[in-house]
Amino acid sequence: MTGKEEKFFEVLREYTGYCEKAGALLDSVVSGETDPEEGYESLRLLKRQSRDVQGRLIERLYKAYREPAYANEARSMVVRMDGIINGAKDIVNMLIVYHKDETCPEGIRVMTKLIRCAVSEMVKIIGYTDDVEANMMKMDARCQRIYNMEERGDNTYRTTLQNLFYGEHDPMYAIRWREILGDLEKVLDSCAGMIPRFQRIMVKD
How far is 67 from 2, CA to CA, in rounded Å? Predict the structure, then answer.
């Protein structure tokens, strides 16, 4: 790894901290530990704070990866991380409107737990870049864990969607929670989607 790449990953490690906080806030709101409006304000602040780091990250990215193919992979990875923060904020914003006296479907809670765990694994993976050679096996193992969480999320999405539309629910209840369920799946997909891009830039040599 070159010096410029090391500096890129140094800023990336900082940026993943914001992703981890976003995942934790989302889970806290869905589990009922944090009021949705309070959670939304915290996520708005988190998004503002992350912008400066993201700007520095993109700047480092183009210095570290001169070849367009690798620069695009790295940028695509950053875009997916940004999707975690934005997705969490948007979901909590919807919960302010929808999550009044309604009972939250269990599948929604499961999805948010999976997101929180997947982001935590992602933080550990990026953290290992301070010594890639020594941590390669650990990286691979945690990447597989995220893929397993994505697979579990796909199963949860499908069974929850079936229950919403074929269970004894009010149609509007099903429509509201389907939208949130779909957005949760997108956030979890963002976690898994950064893995192959991360692996490609790590083995580019």
Answer: 14
pTM for the model: 0.92
Helix axes 3-30, 36-64, angle to 10 degrees: 170
Q: Which of 158, 176, 175 has the alpha carbon at shortest distance from 107? A: 158
Residue 190 CB: number of other CB atoms within 10 A?
24
169 phi and psi angles, rounded to 5 deg: -125, 150
Between the CA of residue 181 and those of 123, 124, 200, what are the distances in Å?
A: 24, 26, 30
* Residue 148 structure tokens: 């397993």
Element (H, E) at 123: helix 106-127
Give the residue from 90, 70, 66, 67 showing the smallest Cα distance to 78.
70
Residue type, 205: D
Chain mean position to CA 29 = 16
What tens digit of pLDDT does each residue of 42-85 get?
Answer: 999 999 999 999 999 999 999 999 899 999 999 999 999 999 99
CA distance 69 to 163: 43
